[in-house]
Design brief:
By secondary structure, this protein is an alpha/beta fold. The protein contains 12 helices and 13 strands. It folds into 2 domains: about 140 residues, 2-Layer Sandwich (Enolase-like, domain 1); about 230 residues, TIM Barrel.
């Protein structure tokens, strides 16, 4: 990737190290010599809608970290269509220069430096997206240096993981939703997640029961409300969805409302999943501590990368809660394969890296499972030509429709 040139415009180069690396007992202290960052705005093949958001683009920030032996690590984060330019500015203007000369294998040390540097600006959101992209690149280098695939370096609990079919599909008619799930089932998937939050009280119930009929009693059905409801409305609506026997419902309330999720869980008996909107282990701990969730869904490129993801997974393991990684399929397969309490991985149709055009080939998912390979690092290679066409013009206004529609 380093020779492709698509990230060369915003490179931070160490002509002489500005930070001394800490020796770890290794014969060679590896040093970061260059960090390159670029941002892209990728149009989706078609607009997709959940209960709160209509998405037309996916934004992507890619970071390359090169070390003095020529090894290159690649990290990235994505957004729903807002914020990539801000993440790029934070990385290029503030974070990348302070890491030149550091040893990328010291992932915890680097993460703590980035976390404290960004904490006053906010312990989540743009800051953790930026930290994530950098941290993922560091782990890629670390695995490559060890000569191992990332999942094995992280723990190697298994060599294959279940992948479930997911999509932003609330806008689909009943007929189109049924056809979508039938096609996913024909491709070998046995677990599925669909959106809920239609206006009519019984619309969601009818759609869920129709999908249950297709996938059968042994199929796994998950629901996602995308923070649509209040506690009272969610209580009413969830009770009439119980007949579809979902594994869980994701984000029925605003993710800020820990107490509301606890009340809802106790009132309905429906298992609750949260994490897509949470940005660090402290936010996850609030849910775990208060007994407000049954499944944790950290997104590796939102929570601060692999270093923080592992700590969130440890919280879940201590509380007996499964980890169901949110999105980020290309990295989540490594994380799920590494951790004993990881349940499965989400393939969001239309929003994985290949589907929105960032990589040149799809992941080899067969019969709803992905088998991890033996290649070094995470193995993700971006398509330079495809990305270059959609590079963000930083500092210019972006013509777009708002994500959220208010009536």
């Amino acid at each position: 990737m380093a020779g492709d040139g698509y990230l060369q415009e915003h490179a931070i180069v160490a002509h002489s190290p500005t930070t001394s690396a800490i020796a770890t007992g290794a014969k060679h202290i590896m040093k970061i010599s260059r960090i390159t960052c670029s941002a892209f705005r990728m149009p989706l093949k078609q607009a997709v809608s959940s209960s709160r958001v209509t998405m037309t683009h996916r934004e992507l920030v890619v970071v390359e970290v090169e070390v003095d032996n020529g090894e290159i690590g690649v990290g990235w984060c994505t957004t729903a269509g807002v914020g990539a330019a801000a993440v790029h500015a934070l990385i290029s203007g503030y974070l990348a220069p302070m890491l030149l000369g550091s040893d990328p294998r010291n992932t915890e040390q680097i993460w703590q430096r980035l976390w404290m540097e960004c904490h006053a600006a906010g312990p989540g959101g743009i800051t953790t997206l930026a930290i994530s992209a950098i941290d993922i690149a560091m782990w890629d280098i670390k695995a490559k240096n060890a000569g191992e695939p990332l999942y094995r370096l992280l723990g190697g609990a298994r060599t294959s993981v279940q992948v479930y079919a997911s999509a932003i599909n609330l806008h689909l008619s009943m007929e189109d939703l049924v056809e979508q799930v039938r096609a996913q089932s024909s491709d070998g998937y046995t677990a599925f997640k669909i959106k809920v939050g239609r206006p009519g009280l019984y619309e969601d119930r009818e759609r869920c029961l129709a999908i249950r009929k297709i996938i059968g009693d042994n199929g796994c059905l998950m629901l996602d409300a995308n923070q649509k409801w209040s506690v009272g409305e969610a209580t009413q609506r969830i009770r009439i969805l119980l007949d579809a026997a979902p594994l869980f419902i994701e984000e029925p309330l605003l993710s800020d409302d820990v107490g509301g999720h606890m009340k809802l869980r106790n009132a309905t008996g429906m298992p609750i999943a949260v994490g897509e909107q949470l940005c660090n282990r402290f936010e996850f701990w609030n849910y775990v501590h208060d007994g407000a969730t049954d499944y944790l869904q950290p997104d590796v490129w939102k929570v601060g990368g692999i270093t923080e993801f592992l700590k969130i997974a440890a919280l879940g393991a201590a509380a007996g809660l499964p980890i169901s990684p949110h999105g980020a399929m290309e990295l989540s397969v490594h994380l799920a394969a590494a951790l004993p309490n990881a349940l499965h991985v989400e393939n969001i149709f239309g929003l994985n890296l290949f589907d929105f055009g960032a990589t040149s080939g799809p992941m080899a998912i067969a019969n709803g499972r992905y088998v991890l390979g033996s290649g070094r690092g995470h193995g993700v290679t971006f398509s330079a030509a495809a990305l270059e066409e959609h590079k963000l013009s930083l500092g210019e206004a972006i013509e777009r429709e708002p994500l959220y529609a208010f009536s």
